[in-house]
Amino acid sequence: MRVFLKINGVLYEVEVEPRRLLAHVLRELGFTSVRIGCDTATCGACTVIMNGRPVKSCNILAVQADGAEIFTIEHSDEVMDRLKEAFKRNHAAQCGFCTSGMLLTAYHLLKRGVKSEEEVIEGICGVLCRCTGYQNIINAIKEAAGL
User: Fold this and answer.
1) Dihedral of the CA atoms 75, 97, 145, 91 (nearest 10)?
2) Distance separating alpha carbons of residues 18 and 106, to the nearest angstrom
3) Cβ–Cβ under 8 Å, residues 3 and 14
4) How far is the C-alpha of 26 from the C-alpha of 34, rounded, in Å?
5) Segment 97-106, tens digit of pLDDT
6) 131: how many CB neighbours lie within 10 A of its CB?
7) How confident is the model at residue 93 (pLDDT cuts 50, 70, 90)?
8) Ramachandran angles phi, psi of 127, nearest 5°
9) Structure confidence at residue 144 (pLDDT)
């Protein structure tokens, strides 16, 4: 099937098998920041922003995303740039495997107007990090949100 995906502002026309997962298609298009950690929508490493909301791309068929607008961490705007800088300053990444999913989840939180540390903690609960212990990630998101 032919699908059209607008990824980070660029329109892609892709021929996919109906059973192909969005995560795999994104990686094949060169967006290797989309990590595949579990293929069961448990870890959140594959999180992308699709039509303004964070989704786990290992749980969505590429054909379901036809016509969607998708952001990966290669997306650049003031909010994403502020988050990336806050992650650097707060040492919020160690191995980096969860970082793209965490950044995109945090991006959504900032875009919707996160107002407290509790909202940050609840908001990132869908992305597992096995290295940092979360505190530096929480601190980075709070800094980027101005909390």
Assistant:
1) -120
2) 31
3) yes
4) 7
5) 889 999 999 9
6) 13
7) confident
8) -120, 120
9) 97
